[in-house]
Specification:
The complex is a heterodimer. Helix content of chain A is 0%, strand content 50%. Classes of the chains: A mainly beta, B mainly beta.
């Protein structure tokens, strides 16, 4: 089974900050990686797929990069609506989510 | 509007059964793989089961294999999850999620609002 490890688990930041979340896979997953945003009481929302492709309607301040085993999600300028929990997901071999990264207000 | 609407959740005793349904609208249901993902209270996301490909390949997480069965009725645009031998650790919000394609290798672009399953005596 492929394990996904996100860091950090919690991130404190201010509006306007550049934020980076890392996701590492236990083995190579090529570019088969997605990022989701989830707010309390809501379903997850797809942000990025295939490591760096921006889902339609997602603001361009979100970007993804990486391949193989190491990936990053970057928010270029954090907005009030971005305080949420973010999950990575591999879909190279079945499907596995990371444990999540909560982005909270500093 | 593309939409997924889950139903069938509720309270059940350990060892009991439930069947979840996910009604799809706004897209050609038969052309996409479909999944179930769950989230225990205060915890992260856990993929549960998938139904992919034109041939109807099914996949299950080890935690539910042999107890849960995924199925779909393309004529009714509905995905199902039959859950038997339920355990306390199956307590979670269950989400139905549409994949970006019919393939097994794809992300999930549309999610339902979720249905809560509580397993407790």
């Amino acid at each position: 089974d492929i394990q996904m490890t996100q860091s950090p688990s919690t991130l404190s930041a201010s509006v306007g900050d550049r934020v980076t979340i890392t996701c590492r896979a236990s083995q190579s997953i090529s570019s088969w990686l997605a990022w989701y945003q989830q707010k309390p009481g809501e379903a997850p929302k797809l942000l990025i797929y295939k490591a760096s492709s921006l889902e339609s309607g997602v603001p361009s301040r979100f970007s993804g990069s990486g391949s193989g085993t190491e990936f990053t999600l970057t928010i270029s300028s954090l907005q009030p609506d971005d305080f949420a929990t973010y999950y990575c997901q591999q879909y190279n071999s079945w499907w596995t989510f990371g444990q999540g990264t909560k982005v909270e207000i500093k | 509007e593309v939409q997924l609407l889950e139903s069938g959740g509720g309270w059940v005793q350990p060892g009991g059964s439930l069947r979840l349904s996910c009604a799809a609208s706004g897209f050609t249901f038969s052309s996409y793989a479909m999944n179930w993902v769950r989230q225990a209270p205060g915890k992260g996301l856990e993929w549960v089961s998938a139904f992919t490909g034109s041939g109807g390949n099914t996949y299950y997480a080890d935690s539910v294999k042999g107890r849960f069965t995924i199925s779909r009725d393309n004529s009714k645009n509905t995905l199902y999850l039959q859950m038997n031998s339920l355990r306390a650790e199956d307590t979670a919000v269950y989400y139905c999620a549409k994949a970006l394609s019919l393939a097994a290798q794809d992300a999930f672009d549309i999610w339902g609002q979720g249905t809560m399953v509580t397993v407790s005596s």
